[in-house]
Amino acid sequence: MPGQYQLEIIDHRQVAPGHFELTLPQQGELARAEPGQFVSVLVRAPESFDPLLRRPLSIYRTAEDRFSLLYRVVGRGTRRLSQFRAGEALDCVGPLGRGFTYRDLSPGAKVVLVGGGVGVPPLVFLSQKLLQIGIVPEVFAGYASSEHVVGLGAWREAGLEPVVSTDDGSLGYRGYVTQVFAERLAQGSVERVYACGPRPMLAEVAALAGRYGVDCQVAMEEWMACGIGVCLSCVTKVQEGGANRWARVCREGPVFDARKVVWQGGS
Amino acid sequence: MDHEVVDLSVNLGGLALKNPVMVASGTFGYGKEFAEFFDLGRLGAVMVKGVSLVPWEGNPLPRIVETPAGMLNAIGLQNAGVDHYLKEDLPFLRQFDTRIIVNVIGKTVEEYARVVERIEAQEGADAYEINISCPNIKEGGISFGSDPALAAEVVKAVRSRTRRPVIAKLSPNVTDVTEVAIACQLAGADALSLVNTFLAMAIDVDRERPVLANVFGGLSGPAIRPIAVRMVWEVYRAVDLPLIGMGGITSARDALEFILAGASAVAVGTANFTNPYASLEVLSGIQEAVRRRGPYREMIGRAHRWQKERSIDD
User: Fold this and answer.
1) Which CATH code is given to the segment(s) A3-96?
2) Neighbours of B212 (CB within 10 A)
3) Residue B3 lies in a domain
4) Number of Cβ pairs closer than 8 Å across A and B?
5) Chain A positions with Cβ closer than 8 Å to B
């Protein structure tokens, strides 16, 4: 069940050019959030109506008494959010959406994570949870360039060594993350893939996983107004029982079974 | 502390409400999601998302865009149809001690009438809100609500199918909103909702094209409130029907503007998206106002007295 919370910002810092990590205290239902779920944050000043809508941000990592959100400044809302300082209160609604399914996996399961750019944060949180149940995931992370790298430090602290690729070759492999991921899949023995990133990347990951018959869950993103499932702004086409229908990314997602998503013309 | 129970009950053309705070159609789904935040029984009524005869697919994406103190939407009235409403949504809503106002949509006069027939057969509504902003496919897609004669035709068709209160939801996209209001009154409407969203658009300057896939969308949110208040003021003077005021209400003070302008009840819309408790905050603020200013029903339209008083002074 989601709730509305006024949270006092513990820490707010730039972690890469244009990327910020926002640390907030755990409260109420938020402490039960699962990887892939998100929090929607009111970024406007009190008594102001601009920017009007909340911004949905996925949970990046958690600790006993705190959790953090990682976001990139892309427009007015996130620019305004980046100006909040430690000690200020932030109006948050969450946890929202359906997160990744992973509790069905056995310890030692062969799991691969594929993250693209600002799609990395929920996969860092997922890694935390997987490690807790005895699963050491293999991580593939792709970025536009070395400047845009986020989450690598958190993964390394957790003892993981992500395979990195950048579009311009400034760090790790040169090219898309899907290329190195494809090579890994070809080697076999992958039980499940979790992916988050831009839609074209997810479509490619889904196609590859499908080709090798590997279970795949994708966390998707669409423009949202309400974030709780009533406005029908953030829908995406899914296939169910031979028919296509709109599913709400904010409520039935953001995590979907990759086989159900209609990738061509589905948005 | 004053614990005296404040009487906020109001009768909207035969629809008795325990309080005048509702939630606007399309901003509250069919209640399920908001029931995770509060007891829907605290609301005077829930105006459910538009229900059509058969499922409507809605528009392609993007369907929304944020604008200054507002947003545009072009959802396209996506909904699962009347049979789904009756089977899946109505039983859930009936658990709560609130009134259910079904927003009815259609592409022909006949479709509106048949939705109401289906719902009547299962007593699936306490009142109907007729969304006359839908495109009329027989008239080349122009909205029923932009023509007084077409609006009246829809209201008449629904009127003949039910004895329950019929509320016409007016479109603001007309030169003179009182013309359609009068036509709806003559056609047998029991109350009027005003206003629906304002036709608008946004252009992506970088990509040099419209933002919304549908090109046009409906503007809602605080940005439209002053225009909506003006329309309630005008219609209050032109017709003799209870009005439900809506358009950018985020607080009790916003709601009081509509009430003082002549609305007997109010609906919270876009604010539901940004504050799940907005409707309850409006309700408690109105209760507070009644404690300080006296009976609710006497507040309705009271701002119009100012003009009378001024003319006496003159």
Assistant:
1) 2.40.30.10
2) 22
3) no
4) 88
5) 1-4, 42, 49-54, 77, 93, 222-223, 225-233, 235, 246, 251, 267
For residue B37, which residues of chain A lie inside 8 Å, CB to CB? 2-4
Q: Which of A49, A77, A233 sits opposite B73 (nearest CB)?
A: A233
Round to whole Å and give the CA distance between A55 and A73.
11
pLDDT band per the 50, 70, 90 thresholds, residue B1: very low
Q: What is the CATH number of the domain that holds B161?
A: 3.20.20.70
Chain B residue numbers with beta carbons less than 8 Å from the beta carbon of A229 are 29, 33
* pLDDT per residue as tens digits for the range A139-187: 999 999 999 999 999 999 999 999 999 999 999 999 999 999 999 999 9
CA distance A198 to chain B (A): 16
Residue B176 counted as domain residue: yes
Long-range contacts of B290-296, Cβ-Cβ distance < 8 Å, separation of 24 or more: B290/B6, B290/B7, B290/B8, B291/B2, B291/B4, B291/B6, B295/B7, B296/B6, B296/B7, B296/B8, B296/B10, B296/B20
For residue A1, give the chain B residue with the closest CA.
B36
Query: What ipTM was estimated for this complex?
Result: 0.94
Domain A111-219 adopts which CATH fold?
Rossmann fold (3.40.50)
Among residues B115, B134, B183, B289, the one annotated as catalytic is B134
Collapse the DSSP code of A150 into the 3-class scheme (helix H, G, I; strand E, B; otherwise coil) and give the result.
Answer: coil
Measured between beta carbons, which residues in chain B are less than 8 angstroms from residue A50?
68-69
Q: Is B134 a catalytic residue?
A: yes
Task: Give the tokens for residue A135.
Answer: 């699963």
Among all residues of chain A, which has the CA nearest to that of B223? Answer: A49
pLDDT of A50-99, one tens digit each?
999 999 999 999 998 999 999 999 999 999 999 999 999 999 999 999 99
Q: How far apart are CA A67 and CA A37, in angstroms?
A: 12
Fold of the domain built from segment(s) A223-267? Dihydroorotate dehydrogenase B (pyrk subunit); domain 3 (2.10.240)
| CA dist., res. B246 & res. B279, Å (int) | 12
Alpha-carbon span B233 to B243, nearest angstrom: 10
**Partners of A221 in the β-ladder:** none
